[in-house]
Amino acid sequence: MTPKRLNFITGNANKLREVEAILGDLVDLRSQSLDLVEVQGTIDDISVDKCRRAAELVKGPVLVEDTCLCFNALKGLPGPYVKWFLHDIGLEGEVHFAAAKDALADEPEGLNNLLAAYDDKTAQAVCTFAYSEGPGSEPKIFQGRTDVRVSHYLLVVGQILTYVKGKIVPARGPSRFGWDPIFEYEGRTYAEMTALEKNKISHRSKALEKLKAWLKGDA
Ligand SMILES: O=c1nc[nH]c2c1ncn2[C@H]1C[C@H](O)[C@@H](COP(=O)(O)OP(=O)(O)OP(=O)(O)O)O1
Ligand SMILES: [Mg+2]
């Protein structure tokens, strides 16, 4: 038996108007606005969830990491979804996103294309490690960002300035690792740096500094 009455939970009048128009007299459409939790997840949530799942699976302590590439013009996107634009994605991603991947065969240029309509090419790389002692144990987060905004208070002008260091550029340097060739940091792409140079300034090294401090008992 299909229902004769539907209670459409939404806070969006436009959605409601369209649903009403489409369903017509088919059902008695009621509507109610409720503030519902919508799981989408911040960068931290993603690593925490990844960590919880890993701990459940291995039934012991785990460390996981999730890397995001956030375009400022796109308000942080693609962020955690950057993996869908690259070839080295996991098996699950391969299956579900095969079509999207083919369309972006010239990776990581597909990522550049996302910014084609914007003048602002600035970006931040964010690395989030999460450690859990095991199932049921709350993960601890260690996060590093390339784009540490430095604020300066100038006495003369009385102005706060911020500097953004990361930028998305046409690929330069060997493609060894994901989006390294298109992420420029202080004039050079990650791919143009030696491993040592990248590891001195990278988002990952900044996160690992925090992890190291915690391991040493300093944080
Ligand atoms: O320093 C980096 N320089 C360039 N590319 C990078 C970097 N770090 C991660 N990446 C890529 C890998 C993956 O396409 C996506 C993050 O996704 P992310 O889920 O964190 O990595 P993953 O799936 O390869 O490994 P994991 O098994 O730890 O989830 O950005
Ligand atoms: Mg992954």
Topology:
Layout: E1 5-9, H1 13-23, E2 28-32, H2 43-58, E3 62-71, E4 78-79, H3 91-96, H4 98-103, H5 109-114, E5 123-132, E6 140-145, E7 152-153, E8 160-161, E9 166-168, E10 183-185, E11 188-189, H6 195-201, H7 203-215
Helix pairs in contact: 6-7
The chain binds 2'-deoxyinosine 5'-triphosphate and magnesium ion (MG).
Please describe the structure with a list of short key phrases separated by commas or semicolons.
alpha+beta; Maf protein; 2 domains; 4-stranded antiparallel sheet; 3-stranded antiparallel sheet; 11 strands; 23% strand; binds 2'-deoxyinosine 5'-triphosphate; binds magnesium ion
Care to describe what's here?
With 219 residues, this protein is an alpha+beta fold. The chain folds into 2 domains: 36 residues, no CATH class; 173 residues, Maf protein (Alpha-Beta Complex). Helix content is 30%, strand content 23%. It contains 7 helices and 11 strands. Strands 4-3-5-6 form a 4-stranded antiparallel sheet. Strands 9-10-11 form a 3-stranded antiparallel sheet, with no helix packed on it. A hairpin with a 2-residue loop joins strand 10 and strand 11. Helix 6 packs across helix 7. The chain is extended.
